[in-house]
Specification:
It comes from Filimonas lacunae. The chain folds into two domains: 162 residues; 57 residues. The radius of gyration is 58 Å and the shape is rod-shaped. The protein starts with 11 loop residues before the first helix and ends in a 7-residue tail after the last helix. It is 86% helix and 0% strand. By secondary structure, it is mainly alpha-helical.
Amino acid sequence: MNIFKRLFRIGQAEIHAAVEKMEDPIKMTEQGLRELRKDLADATEAYASVRALAIRTENEQAACEKESLGYAEKAVLVMQKAQTGQVDIVKAEQLAREALSLRRKYYAESEELGVQVLALQNSSQEMLRNTEVLKENLEKWEKELRTLKMRVKVSTATQQVNKQLAQLDTNGTIAMLERMRAKVEDQEALSMAYGEIAHSKNSLQSELNNILKDDSFSIEKDLKAIKEKLGINDNPS
């Protein structure tokens, strides 16, 4: 059997050639695995056919062997009947010869079928081993293909991110950040200045209010009026 003839489709040589030709190794591997699955199905079907033929041949051999033994027993029985006088000796010998002839015929067929059974058993066992090897390799390659697909997916995403990072204008980005920082600092300084101005206005207004609220001038004025009314002079001569 040459059921492994397509294995080289996914071998290293084909993979390297695919890469060099910028072909998709995953698609090629998937195609190779599809062909291997078909080979596995064909091999399984072939094994089943050979095994069925072996079983049928084994049954035929057993039947021939049984017939051979049966005719051998018949030859003995007919001669026993002749010995007891139940059958004429001449007739008994004729029947015994016929039974022995059939016995030899079925024995020869049994021997020939036995050789065929042995050959079919060997072939079916070899086919089964090859089928199991193909099945194990197919499962292993399918698992590796799933891993390869995942690695390709991750590497493609990583490549895209790295490509985007590589295409960034680093100098321009830094300059933009510096301008933004300067603008924010200017806004913060302006906010502090407005705060100081507001605080200064509040202080002046508070001072003014305090002055306006100070009634010492009114008290002195009232005291002076009382003193004038009483005739008290602030500057006695």
